[in-house]
Design brief:
- Strand 2 (33-37), helix 2 (43-50) and strand 3 (57-60) form a beta-alpha-beta unit.
- The chain has ten helices and seven strands.
- The two termini are 27 Å apart.
- It has one domain (2-209): Rossmann fold, CATH 3.40.50.
- By secondary structure, it is α/β, with parallel strands linked by helices.
- It is globular.
- It has helices spanning 15-28, 43-50, 66-75, 91-98, 111-126, 143-156, 169-176, 181-184, 189-204, 210-218; strands at residues 2-6, 33-37, 57-60, 80-84, 102-107, 131-138, 160-166.
- It has a seven-stranded parallel beta sheet with strand order 3-2-4-1-5-6-7, sandwiched between helices.
- The protein binds adenosine-5'-triphosphate (ATP) and magnesium ion (MG).
- The site of adenosine-5'-triphosphate has 18 residues, from helix 1, strand 6 and helix 7.
- The site of magnesium ion (MG) has 5 residues, from helix 1.
């Protein structure tokens, strides 16, 4: 069983949205996937309650219960766990990272996010966990913004920028309906971006699924 935590100290950068998008992609790829929401806001748990589909399973957990939840998931044959963490310097995020095989760090192309990024990178480094940055809410059609972000992230060291998710209304619309952007608009721009990122995650964690093979063949 592989564990991915989605963490970033800065609030509102798209942690929960990215978690849900990737968890839906994993479920569609046929993986037995679980999302653990560690944020007291429980926005991912609420998203699941709005959802009309049984997968992915979403459950709220605390720092104390996390090891037991992970043991139960492993015993139940779960293949992939996403942990959605709260913002700020939360002990939940620190604990989630310790248990993770990969830390995904959503980062918006703003100075406020760039200022917080080194702290989150340090958390991953302290636990010796591989970390990767996903540029989120990027301005559509702004190549220069993307290039600047790549340079800033590279200059910090410790993690590569492995994907870009543009600021698109479909993410908000999908959230309202308990869906992912790819479910609301299959084949749309957001769906393609998430598919590309899911492809990267699959190869990084050596997940073998038919959907990943299919994506690779298509590109
Ligand atoms: N790529 C995107 N394009 C447009 N809107 C987005 C995108 N990603 C997230 N959003 C919207 O931005 C808001 C914040 O996103 P989200 O809740 O995922 O952030 P978060 O990092 O989990 O926030 P918090 O730190 O409070 O947990 C939500 O309304 C969400 O629908
Ligand atoms: Mg959140």
């Amino acid at each position: 069983m592989k564990i991915i935590s989605v963490a970033m100290q800065k609030g509102g950068v798209g942690k929960s949205t990215l978690t849900r998008s990737l968890a839906v992609a994993a479920a569609q790829a046929g993986l037995n996937v679980l999302v653990l929401d560690m944020d007291n806001q429980q926005s991912t748990k609420q998203w699941a309650a709005r959802r009309d589909a049984p997968l992915p399973l979403v459950s709220f957990t605390t720092e104390i219960d996390l090891p037991g939840e992970l043991d139960r998931a492993r015993a139940a044959g779960c293949e992939l766990v996403f942990i959605d963490t709260p913002p700020a310097r939360s002990t939940e995020a620190l604990t989630a990272v310790e248990y993770s095989d990969l830390v995904l760090i959503p980062c918006t192309p703003d100075i406020e996010s760039y200022e917080q990024l080194p702290r989150t990178l340090r958390v991953a480094r302290a636990s010796e966990r591989p970390a990767a940055v996903v540029l989120t809410m990027a301005t559509p059609n702004s190549r220069s913004e993307q290039e600047t972000a790549r340079e800033v992230i590279q200059a910090m060291g410790g993690a590569q920028m492995v994907g870009v998710v543009h600021r698109l209304k479909v993410h908000r619309d999908a959230s309202r309906e308990g869906l992912s952007a790819a479910e609301l608009e299959p084949g749309g721009k957001a769906a393609c971006e998430i598919a590309g990122l899911w492809d990267w995650v699959g190869s990084e964690l050596q997940l073998s699924t038919s959907a990943i093979v299919h994506t690779r063949k298509a590109s």
